[in-house]
Amino acid sequence: MTFINYATKEINCKIVYYGPGLCGKTTNLQYIYAKTSPEARGKMISLATEADRTLFFDFLPLDLGTIRGFTTRFHLYTVPGQVFYDASRKLILKGVDGVVFVADSQPERMEANIESIRNLEANLKEHGLDLMSIPYALQFNKRDLPNVISTEEMYRVLNYKREPTFEAVATTGVGVFDTLKAVAKQILIELRKK
Amino acid sequence: MGFADLMLHEEDSRRLREVLGRLRQDSNSRAVFLVDKNGQQIANAGDVEQFDTTSLASLTAGNVAATDGLAKLIGEREFSVLFHEGQQDHIHISIVAKRAILVVIFDERSSLGLVRLRVKRASAELDQVFEAMIHRSAAPSSAGEVSPFSEITDEDIDALFSE
User: Fewer CB within 10 Å, N or C, chain A?
Assistant: First the structure.
């Protein structure tokens, strides 16, 4: 749900990074935070366990600049990936404008990727949203690891609707901004349609 | 689609600020915020410069969402008021107009009783403003206005990502 503030001339959009546990959602946000100028970003908040696993969400507000005189602000959230945090994941999807799915490229995580996309689909549905029509980008993360599934195979199994798909190494930033841009663009295009 | 965009116009914004300003004064509180349930800040009043308002909005929304989840677990529709008591500062959180969250931050110069009383009155006023606002958001064309975004070009969008 885009929030358009005509009084302050701001557009606020919400992007959620989704995916299985330890796939690199938080790492995506950390990289964006590290590489964005302090004027363009707010404080990054991580509600994490003592072992640094996301407990509730990470949050990063980002100013992309102005469009038609309106400051374009994106609020990036991650969900906790671990299966048993489903209630929290559902809450975070509330009012989402676009989703990035971060998939783990390791063969042993393929099942978890599939399960997580199914979970995303179901949780969006509970908010009256459809993965088929919501702005969406797919990221194959951890491409630097020695034992990864081919991108062709991952695309075949995980790509949902020919959404923009990127190879990434979130720890070094490869593909991180490309993925963000892809989903942000779709959100703005949606805005134009309304 | 479940999209129902919220649009805040100058007139609504002014009315909201008025109500919040009065609430802050009458309750003798430090600051008052109005936050969308999705975590976006709508308006504020008082001593807001010393707070990270964006983080505050997002965390408040998370807090309310988690508490809503708890309420449903035990068969309640919602917990309409949350109160966090600190050593010096306290936060009173309540739901207004079903989709917004009213946050009052106060210290020893006020009291929970006073805040609750004033929040009640302000909530009724905020309900009215919101009703008008949601109405307008749902039917922007009826007000005879054209969305400034209908003419966004691909170049505008690309320019955002040019760096």
Answer: C
pLDDT at A121: 98
Contacts of B52 in chain A (CB under 8 A): 42-43
Give the pLDDT of chain B (163 residues) as one tens digit per residue: 334 577 888 899 999 999 999 999 999 999 999 999 988 899 999 989 999 999 999 999 999 999 998 999 999 998 989 999 999 999 999 999 988 999 999 999 999 999 999 999 999 999 999 888 877 767 655 444 566 778 888 888 888 877 5
> Is the ipTM of this structure higher than 0.95?
no
By a Cβ cutoff of 8 Å, what residues of chain B touch chain A? 1-10, 12-14, 36-40, 42, 52, 54-55, 58-59, 62, 65-66, 68-69, 147-152, 156-157, 159-161
Q: What is the pTM of this model?
A: 0.91
Q: How far apart are CA B123 and CA B100, in angstroms?
A: 10
Question: What string of DSSP letters covers B80-93?
Answer: -EEEEE-SS-EEEE
The full 3-state SS of chain A, as one line of letters, equals: CCEEECCCCEEEEEEEEECCCCCCHHHHHHHHHHHCCHHHECCCEEEECCCCCEEEEEEEEEEEEEECCEEEEEEEEECCCCHHHHHHHHHHCCCCCEEEEEEECCHHHHHHHHHHHHHHHHHHHHCCCCCCCCCEEEEEECCCCCCCCCHHHHHHHHCCCCCCEEECECCCCECHHHHHHHHHHHHHHHHHHC
Which residues 48-87 in chain A show a CB within 8 A of chain B?
A: 56-57, 59, 61, 64-65, 67-70, 72, 75, 87
Digit-coded pLDDT (tens) for A29-58: 999 999 999 999 999 999 999 888 999 999
CA distance to partner chain B, nearest, from residue A47 (Å): 10
* A153 interfacial to chain B (CB closer than 8 Å): no
Q: Using H for helix, E for strand and C for coil, what is the string for B115-130?
A: HHHHHHHHHHHHHHHH
Query: Rounded CA gap, A189 and B160, in Å?
Result: 13
